[in-house]
Design brief:
- About 1% of the residues have low confidence.
- This protein has a 7-stranded parallel beta sheet with strand order 11-12-10-13-14-9-15, sandwiched between helices. It has a 6-stranded parallel beta sheet with strand order 16-26-25-17-24-23, with helices on both faces. It has a 5-stranded antiparallel beta sheet with strand order 2-1-4-3-5.
- It is an alpha/beta fold.
- α11 links the parallel β11 and β12.
- It folds into 6 domains: 95 residues, 3-Layer(aba) Sandwich (GIY-YIG endonuclease), CATH 3.40.1440.60; 72 residues, no CATH class; 139 residues, 3-Layer(aba) Sandwich (Rossmann fold), CATH 3.40.50; 166 residues, Rossmann fold (3-Layer(aba) Sandwich), CATH 3.40.50.300; 58 residues, Rubrerythrin, domain 2; 93 residues, Alpha-Beta Plaits.
- It contains 22 helices and 31 strands.
- The structure holds adenosine-5'-diphosphate and zinc ion (2 copies).
- The site of one zinc ion has 8 residues, from loops.
Length: 739
Amino acid sequence: MVAEIIINSSVKVLNRIFDYEIPENMNVDLGSRVFVSFGNKKTLDEGIVIGIKEKSEYKVKPILKLQEGKIEKEKIELSKWMSKRYLCNVSDCLKLMLAPGTTNKNIDLRVKEKTVNLIMLAKDNYEVEEDIENGKIKSEKQKNVLEFLMNNETATIQDIELFTDSTRSVVNTLIKNGYLEYKEQKVERNPFIHKLQIKSNNLKLTDEQKLVLSSVKENGEYLLYGVTGSGKTEIYLQLIEKKLKENKSSIMLVPEISLTPQTVDRFIERFGEDKIAVLHSKLSIGERFDQWNKIKDGKAKIIIGARSAIFAPAVNLGLIIIDEEHDESYKSEMTPRYDAKEVAEYIAESKNIPLILGSATPDMNSYYRAKLGEIKLLKLTKRANNSNLPVVSILDLRQELANGNKSMLSLKLQEEIQKNLLVKKQTILFLNRRGFSTFIMCRECGYTVKCKRCNITMTYHKNVNKLKCHYCGYEEEIVKECPECHSKNIKYFGAGTQKLEDEVHKFFKEASTIRMDVDTVSKKNSHEQILDKFRNENIDILIGTQMVVKGHHFPNVTLVGVIAADSSLNLGDFRANERTFQTLTQVAGRAGRGECEGRVIVQTYNPDNYAIEYSKTQNYDLFFDTEIVLRKQLKYPPFCDIILIDMSAKNENELKNVAKKLHTYLKTRVINEKFGLLLYSPVPSPVDKIKDRYRWRMIIKCKYDEKVNNLLSNTLKEFTEMKTKTARVNIVINPNNML
Ligand code: ADP
Ligand code: ZN
Ligand code: ZN
């Protein structure tokens, strides 16, 4: 028999199938992981069997080794589908479906597992008893150890030392004489750090919740649109419970950032730790490996994880939930650039199970599809615990400036913070820019300090007194003199979270503050530690970037201040309004979740912008109706797909040449074959240099169908045949951001 094998490699020319012979006594199957020798290479390459046939038309080499762990047939199908849709290698997709940490070459899975040596009797109890009685064993210490193990089956060496007062050498003698033996036992590394575990019961559902729950049928796609705090999570819990009763597992995706123990705890409290697995990038590889196996063995029936958890080897999958479905993190920004929502749709459809998308601010695409009837719309319009939605006021910063207030905090916001401090209520201040100053400019000649590798402005970080590039991490000493005109008149503009924290301390000397942004969050769990500290120590003010927005529940927070709502309006992206509305609604959702009423103050230079205005009443429908008209006029999603052809190279001329050739190729085909699409000319990307690579791009607006897919995949072939020196081409389908 012959196996069709995909070599585990991202090299484009290897993105095809190779035939290898299956040796007589090797148990190779569809999905098997094997080692083969490829070409003239001395080392072995890993491959995955994606087909089996009688014979090959070529002269083939044999498979050399069989590796543990197999991929399910359906995952192979999924990988093929992804490879086509996202224009990448099948092996790149297959990697996502392998147990974490096992994609390296030639490793033995078993050594990756953490084990302890347990000691146990090597003979039956009565044999040992006999030997003690007829004097074969004389040493008291030996007797003690044997008796201890007769009563306790297994123990670690430390246990034996502790409980029998004997030593390692006694144990070793007993092993040598055949009385004891070692047994290796796998220990599960445990990512559940919180150990509270109060059991929670199903809440009595509101009428709205009841209706939603009963509307979810055995299959189909649903959009659960529910205002913040409307009890979506309770719905998820009860849907999962139903599936558990049918012995089916569920996958729930949440954005990476909100995958906190707090989220996981609600599930543990309801279902117990044993049935739950969590998967996200903050876990160590060992932890992820264990969680993966817990799922694969069918022990964990509830899988909670970030984007890539959609590939978990769930046994008897019965339900997929995607919470905060509008979140950007569901789209991968690395190869393979897949959209977990689309993958979920594929899986749900092929398994004929329900898929629930939940959000307080649905993605424009999802809501549009719901309106068209492609997915079923379920609504929760009220907060479940009867708390009111917060009162949002919009504050015009132009007016503030006119009144002579140049600080980052408007007078109104200062007053409200003061009120909160007096009554010991907590405040969150949100500013979507980290660092201290966001750009540095010479006042004489207008020179701005940019990263040498990325052509983007450097940000001043006061704590380390350095300039940092937020794209590549490059650091530089601060600039005191203009390198162009040697003027000393250098000014630091723009303000980030560090500066905000400084200002807060100036105004409120007594207030305790804590800051959360990429600079303060780095170590494992640190993000959670900040939130815990804020909650448990009742810190007065939490200052943070985007990270503070997502799904957290702080009952004592009654005031949220948005320092500059405009920062997301000036994104230079067609989704700027959508992102602004989403962000404002989500931040506002953090206020007043407990018994006290919440207040939100949104500071802006654009009070008339509709995304800002509608966030005042958190009226998603009104926002949607306005935005959708614009999208249609300007021909943006959901009325088309956007395809970004991202080109880069170390040499600018090489890059221009590639861009020109690819454009000509595309244009010729588009005209000759009468494609109904919009092809734009190649232009330098908005950030036209990152990490020493120049960047150009081309954009296509179209309906991404089979025909366009074909065109794109031919374009990539065309590029490969150019055999360029340093150029790279990436095609991204509906990219998250247009920078
Ligand atoms: P969402 O996921 O929509 O933000 P949650 O499920 O977190 O909402 O619910 C918000 C709050 O309301 C939580 O404290 C939750 O315990 C409570 N809650 C949810 N459903 C009910 C219910 N049926 N009865 C009482 N309280 C509820
Ligand atoms: Zn200058
Ligand atoms: Zn840089």
